[in-house]
Amino acid sequence: MSDPAAPLDAPPGQPRKAAMAAWIGSALEYYDFFIYGSAAALIFPKVFFDESDPATATLLSLATFGVAYAARPVGALFLGHFGDRLGRKKIMVFTLILMGLSTFLIGCLPTRAQVGGLAPVLLVLCRVLQGISAAGEQASANSMTLEHAPQDRRGFFTSFTLSGTQGGQLLATLVFLPVAALPEDQLLSWGWRLPFWLSVAVAVVGYVIRRTLQETPAFTRQAATEGVVKLPLAVLCRDHWADVLRVVAGALIASVSTIFTVWALAYGTSDAVGLSRTQMLWVGALANIVALGAIPAWATLSDRIGRRPVYLVGAAGSAVLMFAYLWAISTGSYPLVLLFGVLAFGVVYSAANGVWPAFYGEMFSTRVRLSGVAIGTQIGFAVAGFAVTFAAQIAGPDGADWSSVALFTAALCVPPVLAALSARETHRVPTERLGESVAGEAARHETVTV
Asked: End-to-end alpha-carbon separation of the chain, Å?
């Protein structure tokens, strides 16, 4: 008799390999994504926009950071559809290649001084490609790890996707530290391009690992028996609409990450506060180092006590600690900034961040899991992406109204709390039965044999 904890006859070693593939792919995706965030806060206002109006240039630069989030829902519709029809592996390989290529091209772009208004246009186009890639990356990696994982450790294994995200942010920060320390003329001429070019090395490693990964047993069995869903979006709208809305609301928690990573970086290095670029980058680096341990720890706890209580700690705690972190920046006291930055982002936010891959993925059946997670998260993430732009406006003309930004961020944490309170607890539901209570038997008529 097979081990009841084994996920549908998973081949030996595949759960760990799937987790590693998710980790390194997410690390690359978010290395690429967050070096852009650092550059948007520190470099791009001077390279791609009109320096005669620094406040407007910063606002426009931060808006380009949000453009990728606007592209995510569109990418989620297409990549989610094909991921549920063709398999998780194909999407994981595609998103890796697209992100690596678009990031490398950003490093090759001409500046405003060289080609005028064409420069920001090209920047936005590359940023859109990054957004489309990110739309399918986490959802496909989450589905791959969840469907390979032992059912009593789904939280732990799926958390590798978000550990990879933190690893990518850490790598991006560490790469930017020596770059940010360059003399101003070297930084703005060629130094800022190096982190974008370096992404190629990580892309090659991730591609090799993902190419050798097997498709999940759950998807393979679904395709071989009942067939794959012909129109995943139609099934989602009919049978899973409430859970999609929960995921949309839950995904707003990512606003904590974008405000911490981008707006707080710009605020801390502004004339109003006066901290150096290196100091603020080190706050992010140390917080991400702590998160690398906190994420799997919180996820393991969720395998024991449930997804909802752990997620609620992260969502509600982040709302409170954002006030403490932004207040600490306003004081200019670097020890306080370090303390509350690591506590807020490294420890407390990691509770929600480490649990949501399993929490959201377990709301859906194998037939529509990738679509449900991709569409739900990317709509929520689109709002989170533009939270940076809204924060820049809320902060006033001098960018110093930190309390309004903290209140705005806390308000965005309320929908995730409500979503978690209304969700089912699924950490003990067998993998093959996830989503059954919602989908029903009627949905099986929308499948087509492959």
From this structure: 29
